[in-house]
Amino acid sequence: MSGNLIALLYLASAVLFIFGLKGLTRVKTARRGNAMAAAAMLLAGITTLVEMGKVDYRWILAGLVVGGTIGLIAALKVAMTSMPEMVALFNGFGGGASALVALSVFSLALMEGGTSLALSSSVSGFLSVFIGGVTLTGSLVAFGKLSGKLGGAPVVLPGRHWINAALLLVILGAVASFLMSSEATSSAMVTSFLIVTALSLVLGVLMVIPIGGADMPVVISLLNSLSGVAAAATGFVLAHNLLIIGGALVGASGLILTQIMCVAMNRTLGNVLFSGFGGATASGDSRDYQNITSCGPEEAAMVLESAGSVIMVPGYGLAVAQAQHVARELGDLLEARGARVSYAIHPVAGRMPGHMNVLLADADVPYEKLFEMDAINSDFKTTDVVLVVGANDVVNPAAETDPNSPIAGMPILKCYEAQTVMMIKRSLSPGFAGIKNTLFDNDNTMMIFGDAKAVLQGLVAELKELAH
């Protein structure tokens, strides 16, 4: 195959990646975008193999079979509530793969005498190993926190900033020692990239363990961006333009999404990474509230029966209870009775960007009924009932009323402005911010205690009973 044809196929793959990414920005076009990105990856892989010429396909086929089987089983078995953990693993494996490719290039150079790497390739290689290693272990810690295996609370080590700074200095010293050598000897290469690899893996753990569960959407976005940067760095090592383009796309889009998440929480990225947010002892039990009004599904259904407009606010509790399908059923019942039903989506609700959108799409809730925070906040004043299902910090008025609150200034869904607010929660326990939710005490708030799915099923049953 000619070089021009190879170049054209790589260009076609890059274009497919770009349009695939564009398609993923909307629910309506997400399937098509995902298919285009998959086709781009397939085309890129086949073209690369053809360009390489004679290769041992046994290892490639073995990798395809093993990896494809694991991926298929994981995709079929993963629950929607576990999607954030899977995304974290994807990020980690992407970073780890980039680091392994860079290490293989270093190993090849070592076997050839240690002098075959240009300066630019050496720098890119070290960057790929460093960023890929941090992404791998950082993502594994994020997976552990999201799945509950490590707990969502921050683990704040004494002097952690000094420890991280020391590790970075040692890594930079190892790289500088290698690059400044007049001739890269075998021992210098081995020592340098072993130090960078080992300390990068340690640094990834130390960077993520102090971050609390409330900041996981930001962490997932950042790790996604880092996996792309690692891939782009590996592309420079291999002089592979398509890998550079694909990695840059992932890195840039992940960074933009990280910034969006930070703005949605009124936090800086530095504050997320270094503050240990949520490390204080959680408050907000029953002793902190004086004006709690609770009700059961029967009383709540009577209020919903006469509502002309209802806004549902989904949160992580909806995901944990896997109650998205019952929420859709309740919304359909209310619409059949003449109510206008909308769904308010906060950017950081759940455990990853777009978590609530994915859940509601799984339940076939029409995309036109999903509204982002800025688009729906002005509607709460004219809404009869707001039904909050498992959300907490993203509806806490303390963000606006208490300048000393840890979430002060964080944009929230202004549910408190509605005529009636119904909060479905298991208890009065706080959210990941670990603070009291003043919305619970409002005169227009009714607490419905219980599992989100069970409560919604009760509301559905009561509304059906009232219809007869």
Give an overview in words.
By secondary structure, the protein is an alpha/beta fold. It has three domains: 1-77; 80-274, no CATH class; 286-467, Rossmann fold, CATH 3.40.50.1220. The chain has helices spanning 3-23, 27-52, 57-77, 83-111, 119-147, 160-180, 186-208, 216-238, 241-265, 269-274, 297-305, 316-321, 324-336, 355-362, 373-376, 398-401, 452-467; strands at residues 309-314, 340-345, 370-372, 385-389, 420-425, 445-449. Strands 3-2-1-4-5-6 form a six-stranded parallel β-sheet. It is globular.
Cα distance spanning the termini: 72 Å
Order of helices and strands: HHHHHHHHHHHEHHEHEHEHEEH
Number of strands: 6
Q: Widest sheet: strand order? A: 3-2-1-4-5-6
In what range is the share of β-strand residues?
5-15%
Pick out the low-confidence regions.
Answer: 279-284
Helix content: 55-70%
Q: What's the number of helices?
A: 17
> What would you report as the Rg, rounded to the nearest angstrom?
25 Å
